[in-house]
Amino acid sequence: MKTHVVRSFGLAFAMASSIAMAQSSVSLYGSLDIGAQYLTHADTKGDSSVGLQSGNAIPSYFGIKGSEDLGGGYAAVFRLESGITMNNGGLTDPSSLFSRYAYVGLQSPYGTVEVGRQFGIMFDETLFYDPTYLAQYSVMSTGLIALANLNPNNGIKYISPNLDGFEATAMYGFGEQIAGNFRAGTYIGAGVSYKGATFHLRGVFEQTRGSLDTTTGIDTSGLEDTRASIAATWNISATTLFLGFANVSGDLELSPPGNIYWAGVTYQISSSWSVLAEFMRYDTHGGMQGRPNWYVLGSTYSLSPRTSLYAYAGVLDNHGGKDFTLNTYDFTSSGGVSQTGVQLGITHQF
Known about the structure:
Elements: H1 2-22, E1 25-39, E2 49-54, E3 61-71, E4 74-85, E5 90-91, E6 101-108, E7 111-117, H2 121-124, E8 155-159, E9 166-173, E10 187-195, E11 199-209, E12 224-236, E13 239-250, E14 258-268, E15 273-284, E16 293-302, E17 307-317, E18 339-349
Antiparallel strand pairs: 1-2, 1-3, 1-18, 3-4, 4-5, 4-6, 6-7, 7-8, 8-9, 9-10, 10-11, 11-12, 12-13, 13-14, 14-15, 15-16, 16-17, 17-18
């Protein structure tokens, strides 16, 4: 009996060891960003505001990700990531624990397939084509990436392998998955990019369908929002130049139909200190909803590889815009007015 127990324990230990070896990695990671903001015209009465705010430069989040080596160049992968608000400890989306990522997938020599909730193609393919990396004062403020389809649900994404600098990405979101209505909330996205030693170029196409409210019966699934964009970056020594264009069309109007332009520059003063400047413009069709301009200046100083201080200053010159704001996550301002904002804060990544 004793011998049998010892042998059983040894077998169990061997199996556990083999499972542990097969599991390549599981890691906890995140980014914690908080700072103070001063913002003019911060409510419907036109008052200014001063206070702490989370995720000014980089969204605050924590996550768990991992991979298992399956052999032959194949691996199973997963990712669970939740957005958090540092100023009150809450979730950025109280209705969803893992509001940013919740997917499982398979990597292979032929590309990667990810299934579940994740960011859309426009976000993926714009993050490194904006000098602020999509901070709160950034091209996000123009509505280039509509918050309604920032993280499409029920998605399947394919990411190709890198072939001499070229990569392709495609994604389909099944939307609301309502019986009898296969269009409600569906999402289609595709992107192609080239990444050379100093020059990067990418093109993106996205199309989103409207929703079906099963309570009221209001059906906008026959309407669509379509976006096409091209952007490039060029690195010249310590300077990087950014340039982008997007066309927004369709009758769903997650953003007004029109053209979005942006241009920016970053300069690496030293290994720890960098500065940036960015200009953005939204020409709505016929100027029906204005032609707002955004101006952003920023600076980041790294205290260590994981911790940095930042400062941003932004101006929205409204030019007749109806619903635009300086801060993309500002839901208290009335819109339709010019704004000035300043942010100072700290970011720590782990």
